[in-house]
Specification:
This protein starts with a helix and ends in a 6-residue tail after the last strand. The protein has 1 helix and 11 strands. The protein is mostly beta strands and about 160 residues long. The strands form 2 sheets. Strands 1, 2, 3, 8, 9 and 10 form a 6-stranded antiparallel sheet that branches. A 5-stranded antiparallel sheet has the order 4-5-6-7-11, with no helix packed on it. The protein has a single domain, classed as AOC barrel-like (Beta Barrel), CATH 2.40.350.20. The protein binds 2-acetamido-2-deoxy-beta-D-glucopyranose (6 copies).
């Protein structure tokens, strides 16, 4: 009888941990870390401009918000942006990076540093596929996501690549 009550109590105690509803498993090395893990995010005003003649005018931009970790930042890729690694672009907040591609893993991948400063450093990532509406002008084409904000889930947590690449 006592055992049943105790198990019931343990079951209740376990609820707060699972109610975080993360879509990935937290590695053992981070289990004791007291930090807010990235769970989901919104992307607003996703816009791609492709110039008809001048590739330096091409740009991709959007706003990123993670309400739980409190990161709210603007993200853009333009002629002055510095590529990170082979295919990542930085957001203004250095804890957030993105990949946008129309082939391979097509869509917009958001990558957020999880528990910044923790060693080893982990990062969460998640993919959304904005549905675009495009309009042409004499100078180029502007494509805007039909939905804004778009909610995305972080469904992967992996060690971050080394910073010096
Ligand atoms: C985002 O994740 C949190 C924590 O899991 C959850 O409470 C919230 O409902 C989620 N929001 C959306 C829009 O999915
Ligand atoms: C985002 O888009 C909305 C609707 O087009 C616009 O009102 C708003 O000013 C935009 N925000 C930014 C920061 O560009
Ligand atoms: C950039 O602009 C050029 C010229 O307008 C275009 O041909 C090219 O496809 C664009 N590249 C990207 C990555 O959008
Ligand atoms: C966060 O960003 C969104 C757009 O992505 C904006 O509408 C909102 O006002 C921002 N919130 C805060 C608290 O800065
Ligand atoms: C160009 O992209 C960088 C980030 O790579 C951003 O800080 C800057 O504001 C962007 N410039 C314009 C004109 O959007
Ligand atoms: C807009 O321009 C692109 C590239 O020049 C072209 O492929 C597309 O058909 C045009 N769309 C419309 C609606 O005119």
């Amino acid at each position: 009888m006592y055992a049943v009550t105790l198990l019931g109590l343990l079951g209740l105690l376990a609820v707060p941990a699972t109610s975080k509803a993360l879509k990935y498993a937290i590695p053992v090395s981070l289990k004791a870390t007291d930090c807010t893990f990235p769970a989901n995010y919104t992307v607003s005003n996703f816009t791609i401009y492709t110039d008809r003649t001048d590739s330096s005018k091409n740009s991709t931009s959007f706003l990123f918000d993670d309400p739980r970790t409190g990161i709210n930042t603007s993200c853009s890729r333009n002629s002055t942006s510095k590529l990170i690694g082979s295919n990542r672009w930085p957001c203004d907040d250095s804890n957030v990076e993105f990949i946008y591609q129309t082939t391979g893993i097509a869509g917009l991948t958001l990558i957020e540093t999880a528990c910044p400063g923790n060693v080893p450093q982990f990062e969460a990532s998640g993919l959304i596929r904005p549905d675009l509406a495009c309009t042409n002008s004499t100078s180029g084409t502007t494509c805007v996501a039909k939905q804004s904000p778009i909610v995305g889930d972080f469904d992967s947590l992996e060690p971050a690549p080394p910073p010096s690449r």
